[in-house]
From TrEMBL, chains A, B:
Keyword set, alphabetical order: Amino-acid biosynthesis, Aromatic amino acid biosynthesis, Lyase, Phenylalanine biosynthesis
Gene (UniProt): pheA
Pathway participation: Amino-acid biosynthesis; L-phenylalanine biosynthesis; phenylpyruvate from prephenate: step 1/1
Protein name: Prephenate dehydratase
CDD domains noted in UniProt: ACT_CM-PDT (cd04905), PBP2_Aa-PDT_like (cd13632)
EC number: 4.2.1.51
GO molecular function: prephenate dehydratase activity
ACT domain mapped to chain residues: 197-274
Length: 310, 310
């Protein structure tokens, strides 16, 4: 298997910064791709060992391009997640003053995160979208726009300076990234893990989604993300991308997935992997009766009953 | 109240075409705005009677800009919805051949709907985003790009011709638009209505969302949309935009909303309005025991019991 990681490029974006926080990234060649789709296709085609892409953002929610790529096509699996705090700098050519700025640029995903700042500080500036934040910085370097919103780390790469830093509309603006590879055995549980699945309902009826969520709730499993995505069969037809606390090797999680497999039209397992938000000491306590030991004891008891040995 | 409707402009986009299908639009001045936010702000400020904006799309799902504007700020209410089938035409300057096209443009929301067509027919064309599909057509007219994806109706307005029509990646590609005004009494039920609400959970615990959905399921109410949106309090903090079948004057819907009001941190009512997808003859039959008559009879029975007259 080639020892390279594809990532959503170009170089000098938040994605590359987040990827470099993973210890395993140090031993791989990191190859930028022009889109989430092309990075994941490189994994599917065997050109890259894994791909690193954004999947959720505390301002915009689930990143639909990534979710849709994981929902459809050849199955892929999530092996790692990284959380990165996002704050923008306003990058300009040296000497530019705030009052000189008539045009600003950045990737469209940056816009909701800098909207209020723009309204307050540059209400008349014209916004033009760039292919990425790094590409916006390059366009400022070339003189096409007056200023770009990007990570402060991009300034030196493009010979720009940061006129303002720490720009973000929401407190705790974070983006979640995932490392995605071809399906294989998930890593062993760490004690603070997360399991991702996609669910398709068998039919649409009152209580249908409530019943799916009941498979988790019945086993005391908390959900961390529920994002509906269109199936492509017209308005109102959705599948559900769900992140649940726990690992598929936890008995409560395995039993919930079996329950879903029985009642759903289709279930796609997207992986069990370590949580980036908390460590094993910080996970919420299990509800009574939902530990592996209690599942095992209950199974023993039923087996004894079936044997007449209760 | 000024007799004008704000809409997401510019002129000549799918939004304007959808708006003109509403009979009441014929008697109003229709004023294009540069963004969903500015159109809704015009309503909040009393400059416009109502605003017409896209809210859901069968390819992309809920349109997050619109949902986020309805979730936050001064309360607004949905009065009408319109469904429009979306197919793109490839607009070019007269005489341009497919092989001449090096650059294409459109609003970013068009991209997922034409992606496969582009891959198959213009794999080397460079994509540049435009502020709107109509604006993309204007930029082609000015010679800045070779071709634009837009509604076929935009061709004549910009002196272009349609090289291809009926381009869409998903069958039944539709967009749902809503007419939004300041809160007032909802229109009377038509027999095929929909109710929109936003729910904030009181706390995050296993089964929390299942319990919210149970308020609908217990009363036999089917959901048509469930879209999670970040609350802005960091990754994993979501509120839920829900469309449910029925009208707030239906007893089952009113009782479900009361149940949600009791258990949620906050409930925002976004309106009850006629469904655009089906008429009163086509709505799904009610589950046994969930009609207004049965609710009334059950309330009578409890009152009689409380009186000792059962």
């Amino acid at each position: 298997m080639p020892a390279s990681y594809a990532y959503l490029g170009p170089e000098g974006t938040f994605t590359e910064v987040a990827l470099r926080t993973l210890p395993e990234a140090a031993t791989r060649e990191l190859v930028p791709y022009v889109s989430v789709q092309s990075a994941l296709d490189a994994v599917r085609a065997g050109e890259a060992e894994a791909a690193f892409v954004p999947i959720e953002n505390s301002v915009e929610g689930g990143i639909t391009t990534t979710l849709d790529e994981l929902v459809a096509g050849a199955p892929l699996m999530i092996y790692r997640e990284v959380l990165l705090s996002i704050a923008f700098a306003l990058l300009v050519r040296p000497g530019t003053k705030l009052s000189d700025i008539k045009t600003v640029t950045a990737h469209p995903a940056a816009q909701p995160q800098v909207r209020n700042w723009l309204k307050a500080n540059l209400p008349d500036a014209v916004w033009e979208s760039a292919a990425s934040n790094a590409d916006g910085a390059r366009l400022v370097q070339e003189g096409r726009y007056d200023a770009a919103f990007a990570g402060e780390f991009a300034a030196s790469r493009y010979g720009l300076e940061a006129l303002e830093t720490d720009i973000h509309d929401a407190e705790n603006a974070q983006t979640r990234f995932v490392l995605v590879g071809r399906p294989a055995r998930p890593a062993a549980p760490t004690g603070a893990d997360k399991t991702s699945v996609v669910l398709w309902q068998r039919d649409d009826h009152p209580g249908g989604l409530r019943d799916l969520l009941g498979e988790f709730a019945t086993r005391g499993i908390n959900l961390m993300l529920l994002q509906s995505r269109p199936t492509g069969a017209g308005i109102g037809n959705y599948c559900f991308c769900i992140d649940a606390e726990g690992h598929i090797s936890d008995r409560r999680v395995a039993e919930a997935l079996m329950g879903l497999k029985r009642i759903c039209l289709q279930v796609r397992f997207l992986g069990s992997y370590p949580r980036a938000d908390v460590g094993p000491e910080e996970v919420r306590p299990l509800l009574p009766g939902t530990s592996d030991e209690e599942f095992a004891a209950a199974a023993d008891w039923v087996a004894r009953c079936q044997d007449g040995r209760f």
